[in-house]
Automatic annotation (TrEMBL):
<dbReference type="Pfam" id="PF00561">
    <property type="entry name" value="Abhydrolase_1"/>
</dbReference>
<keyword id="KW-0378">Hydrolase</keyword>
<dbReference type="InterPro" id="IPR010076">
    <property type="entry name" value="BioH"/>
</dbReference>
<keyword id="KW-0719">Serine esterase</keyword>
<keyword id="KW-0093">Biotin biosynthesis</keyword>
<dbReference type="InterPro" id="IPR000073">
    <property type="entry name" value="AB_hydrolase_1"/>
</dbReference>
<dbReference type="GO" id="GO:0090499">
    <property type="term" value="F:pimelyl-[acyl-carrier protein] methyl ester esterase activity"/>
</dbReference>
<protein>
    <submittedName>
        <fullName>Pimeloyl-[acyl-carrier protein] methyl ester esterase</fullName>
        <ecNumber>3.1.1.85</ecNumber>
    </submittedName>
</protein>
<dbReference type="InterPro" id="IPR029058">
    <property type="entry name" value="AB_hydrolase_fold"/>
</dbReference>
<dbReference type="InterPro" id="IPR050228">
    <property type="entry name" value="Carboxylesterase_BioH"/>
</dbReference>
<dbReference type="GO" id="GO:0009102">
    <property type="term" value="P:biotin biosynthetic process"/>
</dbReference>
<feature type="domain" description="AB hydrolase-1">
    <location>
        <begin position="14"/>
        <end position="265"/>
    </location>
</feature>
<keyword id="KW-0963">Cytoplasm</keyword>
Length: 278
């Protein structure tokens, strides 16, 4: 039995949707149904999220799915180890070449997968994403490291409140902000609570991974969709990716924050269909 829960609808060329940190594949429900009119749409729950297998399994089973990084490994390497493990599991789950669409953390997963396996990831759609989530001395398009450290500390104290706070940050400034907050909060635990090990691994990736060096090698056609009002992954990060990736195009959605597929679904679906039928 597969360790990943995948919901597949429609027929046609395959499109995989990868959710962001703290969520699950159900976040795509409305757009997946509409895209399925033309495509075979797969919505995955990443390991430890939704209906997928938990990471805190018995030791022998845990080792067979995701080996836990040693605490002695440098932090930045732990983040990349977590990213590689997720990509390897997805590559095992999906054997045919496909288009991969990733939102936020899902975008970083999609980026790294596209760089590693260009024959598997034929086209790439990055939604409110970034090659480097945290600020660096030479990268001002990210979240302050102190804020991310605070998230990590808060997560250990009260993970549910921390996830709700993260939802509020994602939607801040968006059109229909309050309505969207209600919808996302209702959906947050609709498939059960995410595994703490998965949440920690996701924060490792967001805090420590820098994929800027991979961008120029990603030659697949890519569509980058940014929210004009996004505070978490600002449009400047999307513009940087569009300039650096050889075959990328950029769409900024006016009035959208970090979840343009929820706040402006018609524009989102139109852009994806246009991109995939080029």
């Amino acid at each position: 039995m597969s360790s990943l829960h995948v919901e597949s609808i429609g027929s046609g060329a395959p499109l995989l949707l990868i959710h962001g940190w703290g969520m699950h594949g159900g976040v795509w429900e409305e757009v997946a149904q509409k895209l399925a009119a033309d495509l075979r749409v797969h919505s995955v729950d990443l390991l430890g999220y939704g209906k997928s297998a938990r990471i805190d399994l018995p030791p022998q089973e845990k080792m067979a799915i995701v080996p836990s990084p040693s605490p002695t490994i440098p932090r930045r390497e732990r983040g990349m180890d977590s990213l590689n493990e997720i990509v390897e599991l997805l590559a095992t789950q999906f054997s045919e070449p496909l288009t991969v669409c990733g939102w936020s953390l899902g975008g970083q997963i999609a980026l790294h997968w596209a760089a590693r396996e260009p024959d598997k990831v034929r086209r790439l759609i990055l939604v409110a994403s970034t090659p480097c989530f945290a600020q660096r001395a030479d990268w001002t398009c990210g979240m302050e490291s102190d804020v991310l450290r605070q998230f990590a500390g808060d997560l250990e104290q009260n993970h549910a409140a921390t996830l709700r706070r993260f939802i509020a940050l994602q939607l801040r400034g968006s059109e229909n902000e309050r309505e969207l907050q209600v919808r996302l909060r209702e959906r947050l635990f609709s498939r059960g609570e995410p595994d703490m090990a998965a949440l920690r691994a996701g924060l490792d990736i967001l805090r420590d991974v820098d994929l800027r060096g991979e961008l120029q090698d990603i030659k697949q056609p890519a569509m980058i969709i940014a929210g004009e009002r996004d505070k978490l992954t600002p449009p400047a990060a999307s513009r940087y990716m569009a300039r650096t990736m050889p075959s990328a195009q950029l769409m900024e959605v006016e009035g959208a924050a970090h979840a343009p597929f929820l706040s402006h679904p018609e524009i989102f679906i139109e852009q994806i269909k246009s991109f995939l039928h080029e």
